[in-house]
Amino acid sequence: MSKEAREVEAKLHLAAAEATSFILKLMNLLLHPPRGASLMFWLLAWLMSQQPLTSDPSAQSSWPQFRGQQGQGRAIQEELPLPFGPTQSIKWQNPIGSGHSSPCIWGDNLFITAHEEGALQILALNRHDGKLLWKHGLPPSSIERGHRNGTPANSTSATNGSILVTYFGSFGLIAHELNGTEIWRHPLPVPITQHGASTSPVLHGDRVILQIDQDVDSYLLCLEISSGKMLWKVDRPGFRRGFSTPILWPPESDDPSIITTGTLRIQAYDPARGQLRWEIGGLPNEMVASPAFDEDHLFVSGWTMGSGVPSLPEFKALVTEDANDDGQIQREEASGAARMHFPYIDADKNGGIDQSEWESMKAIFEQSENALIALKRTPDTKGTPVLAWKQQRGLPYVPSPLAYAGRVFMVKNGGMLTCLNAMSGEPIYREERLGALGDYYSSPIGVGDHVLVASQRGVVTVVKARANELELAYQIDLGQGIMATPAMVDGNLYLRTTETLYCFGRP
User: Of 76, 186, 193, 394, whose CB is crowded by the most CB atoms within 10 A?
Assistant: First the structure.
């Protein structure tokens, strides 16, 4: 099949999915009309309120991107299959290759990425029994510099129910039909960072959005989902390495903003043309966590070791360390802050720090601030939100905050959980110990009446979401490391460890 034919077929698949979603909604309204007014009145009101047709993830059982629906890690109507573990509530388990990406689920399909035998792999499994449906391997252009714990398969795929889009920092973007047929590929340069890529693609209508924040030449990219054609690309000057995934907010708006977080600030972009709508500062020099939201607020959390670094000396004070007199400070010549932060300050990774790199980072460090910021939305969904409250304790480095049950949950390294009132920011409890030491990379998810968090060492802790003090409901040590964020669909918990992909569920 030619590329043109594949593009036409992909667009037809997308249109069919959109039409099916619209018809299902309409049939449901006709079969269950609201009380208190005529059906014609409600039908007209409903039609006028509908957003432009787009594939509706709620039409099927799905966890369609990083952190599920709208990137928020919420499964409100679900119930965890407690207890679960290596010997109980297992529906299936499969060994899995290297990777920290999370499951992406639509209908009967589960998609996940891995790095095996030198190839970047996209795997499609039957989510009910774990059987392999198809696998597509890609040769990396070059393995990313310093990828976390030796794997270049960190990004989670995204789907609209018709097309699956996957990003590898060591390759770029690629799109498949859900049956495994490749539609298009869009190679990209390997990002220049110390830790490799972990941002994931986000789908919005007919668009694929990808945020690439790196030590030089950061940008935001938008492609047409049916063809892979670039619709726009926006440079992000002043943004250094970042690892967060953007979201669309407010989600119910017919024209939401692309919310990105990065060096020192939050930015909102117009999805149609990539124009900047607003910008708010108050973040650290490096962002990892992705944004969260509830009905009233946008929540952005950031913490790094670089934030709050004492003012760096002037570059001229380092000249005496320049032993070879080449105008740069090499690693072996560096001392103090120059040695401590050398990989970060050396933006172009040429092995030396010059004056422009030093002064740029000096200015960033001086403005850097660790914080959880709550922004209150305004009546104009495109307008700049206002600061509602701010907290500076209990902040995670990697895990994203979870807005759930009228609260904001954050888990930080050392196994300490903080729960805040989402409206006021007042602590319900703060930095309470979970009894599971170590670092945390997986983001918490909310499931029914519970919040689930997982440590890097492999301890999974379930707490009661609405308790007014830390109340553990269940804890299990899986004995395998956990970096990926779990997914929850139809009563089944899909959890990836460093060795195994599990499906836990009641018989």
Answer: 193
